[in-house]
Write a structure and sequence with these properties.
Layout lengths: L1 H51 L11 H17 L4 H22 L1
Helix pairs in contact: 2-3
Length: 107
């Protein structure tokens, strides 16, 4: 009986591990799909940034007031969606820096 229980426990643990791995794989696939959507939106954002370079001088690329205002609004909206402020701030600051670099290359 002890051996049977031990073997049953091992089989159950193996099934549990297999289920865990399948769930992780499914969740990661969902994350990959979301990442692909984010890339599409980044592409759209890039196109808009490229349009605006036609109207800006090099000295007008960085608008600290706009950046601060954007971040404030985004953090507020993010909170409503249960997204931690540091996630919003870090992601957007990195994106803004990257697009500023792109603008500087194009102007």
């Amino acid at each position: 009986v002890l051996l049977y229980n031990f073997i049953h426990m091992i089989k159950k643990a193996k099934l549990s591990q297999k289920n865990k791995l399948l769930n992780i794989k499914k969740i990661r696939n969902n994350i990959d799909k979301i990442d692909n959507q984010i890339l599409k939106y980044l592409s759209l954002r890039r196109k808009e940034v490229m349009k605006i370079t036609k109207y800006k001088k090099r000295s007008e690329i960085v608008d600290q007031k706009r950046i601060a205002s954007m971040l404030k609004k985004l953090v507020r909206k993010g909170r409503a969606l249960n997204i931690e402020p540091y996630v919003i701030e870090n992601l957007w600051k990195a994106m803004i820096r990257s697009f500023i670099k792109l603008e500087r290359e194009k102007i």
